[in-house]
Prior knowledge:
By secondary structure, the chain is mainly alpha-helical. It has helices at 2-8, 15-39, 57-60, 63-88, 95-116, 127-152. It is 67% helix and 0% strand.
Amino acid sequence: MPQQQGENRGKGTNVWSFGLQLGFFAGLIWGGIKGLMYFFRLTVVVPGYLAEPFFKNQFLKTQGGYYVGWLFFILFSILAALLYTLLFRRLKGPYPGILYGIVWWIVIFIVLGPMLRLTQPISELPKGTLISELCLYLLWGLFIGYTAAMEYTDERHREPQKAQ
Length: 164
């Protein structure tokens, strides 16, 4: 009987509410880590870089700007998680999520970021910042992708069973 429940698990999960919750927690967790990365000077990109078109850079460097930036990262994560769960939720394993995070890093730091003045051009950012931000997005994408895979595929069956 437990096997049967495991097979049916995930088939009734609402894509919209799951994507919303997943995105919220992805943004909450990884947005907080982004703030810590900035605090420990692992990156020069302010935590509120996604809010750059709506707020002045000087404000984004303040405590209030940090929280506004965190909120924007949560909103961005919700949109990204909804997109992932709508399009890619049936992909198995960690690699689709990792690739998803890398694609978003490319979009933000190479394509749209410099165009919208969210980030400096990639040639002007320190190598340490690029590596730190790439790792953040890679792990953020892994979190979104693998969580969706665990919910919508049989990934749980690959996990080792608990000793009884």
